[in-house]
Amino acid sequence: MINYDIILNKNLLNVLKEVLIQIQNNKSTNHNQLYITFNTQDKNIIIPKWLLAKYPRNITIVLQHEFYNLKVSKEYFNVTLSFDDIKTDLKISFSSIISFADPTADFGLILQKDNKQKKINKNLENKKMKKDNVINFSNYKKN
Question: Where are the chain's structural domains?
């Protein structure tokens, strides 16, 4: 069975990676604001314990004017940001990314949904499918 969610999510992550690589190479976001939300519980991220205590589920960071040392690799990116005037090094795994947006470009993507949201969406889709005139192709499969 083809898992379209995994394929789609992987390609959406490639959009974020390309944006970060462009920012890394240009050393600037120019007029853009990149909001990145990630899961702080992901085992592949590295953030200080005090920041994890403050944001136990997820955090949204902003890359605009004051960020440093952006380095993008295949599986993660590193960046230094200031939190309450404390420069902090972060290692953020792409697997932890929940969403990203650039409001100045009117662009955003949701990469992951929590299990509760997935269940709600699945239930809504099932209800809609029952109401609509949808052809169930499983009736036509050869045995």
Answer: 4-113
CA distance 14 to 122: 25
CB-based contacts of 61, cutoff 8 Å, min separation 6:
35, 36, 38, 79, 81, 90, 92
Check pLDDT > 70 for residue 143: no
120 falls in which pLDDT band (50, 70, 90)? very low
Residue 64's contacts (CB-CB under 8 Å, 6 or more residues apart) are: 29, 32, 33, 34
Tokens 């991220």 belong to residue: 45
> Could you tell me the pTM of the whole model?
0.74
Q: Which residues pair with 92 in a beta bridge?
A: 77
Longest dimension (CA), the chain: 65
Tell the CATH superfamily of the 4-113 domain.
Answer: SspB-like (2.30.30.220)
Mean pLDDT of 39-61: 94
